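Final report, closing paragraph on structural work. Over the funding period we assembled a curated collection of sequence-structure pairs, and we close with a single example.
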Amino acid sequence: METVDILLATFNGENYLRELMDSLANQSYSNIRIIVCDDCSNDKTLSILKELQRNFPVPIELHPNRNNIGIIRTFSKLMELSRARYVMFCDQDDIWKTDKVEKTLLAMQAAEEQEAVNKPVLVHTDLEVVNEAIKQINSSYWSFTRICPQKTTQLNRLMVQNVVTGCTVMMNRALVDACGPIPHGAIMHDWWVALVASALGKVVVLPETTIYYRQHASNCLGARKFFSFSSIRDSFKRQKSMNQKKRRQAQKFASVYHNVLSDDQLQLIENYTTISDKSLLKQIIWTIKYRYYRQGIARNLASFVIEVIPS
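Its predicted structure, as stored:
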């Protein structure tokens, strides 16, 4: 039975940590190891982890950061610490359904049989959106946010819109090794590993909810329901900044993986990173030609409007 490493990044998570850890201990797939990096919490998080480490039924490795380094670098450190053939990301405030590891691993192994074990593979799933008391808000995060991840597994689509939620991710060893340290310029750890999997291997979508995705005031990134034009209009400034970050991330990706990407992939990335320099008409043409678009007509129309509005 293969060991699965669960990579948990914590920071001031005392309120929900025990519930999460209980859900990990109750997994139907038992051969798991929890590797934790605490990012200099100033609440009881670290003491809770040390207490659990003494008596927990699942092995816990604890690696407190000496300095606060942020979520991306913490997950990058966790990936370097992991040794198992299969690795999963974990957030401190969610609750895993009992069959999360088992179902995801089965999907991963099926993909490896098709793609070859030495090919990078990422599997991700849907989530059930709940409130602080674990009362259901929506049975599907994908439905809640109006996305269809099956349509966004290719590099051109993932550069523009990340539909991979980190706490649902499983990576095989080939993907972990291919990612290396996540560089400065990556928007988020899950987005970066999704780009690597898409470009060098495969992204697998498992259309089942495997986690209770808790929404509360202190969420780092939560489920923001997409309404229509008004919700985008109110966030034009933030979206324009994000568009710039996405192009910088794509540039960094091309520079890191220049030697292993195909000529077509490198051209695809270059066209995307320079698209804002073109006329609005050419932006529209290139977006359609190379499919640099997000899911939803309103989202795409808003993106074009954002680009032509002066900063």
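The mean pLDDT is 90. The beta strands are 4-10, 32-38, 60-62, 86-90, 95-96, 121-130, 136-138, 170-172, 202-214. We thank the funder for supporting this effort.
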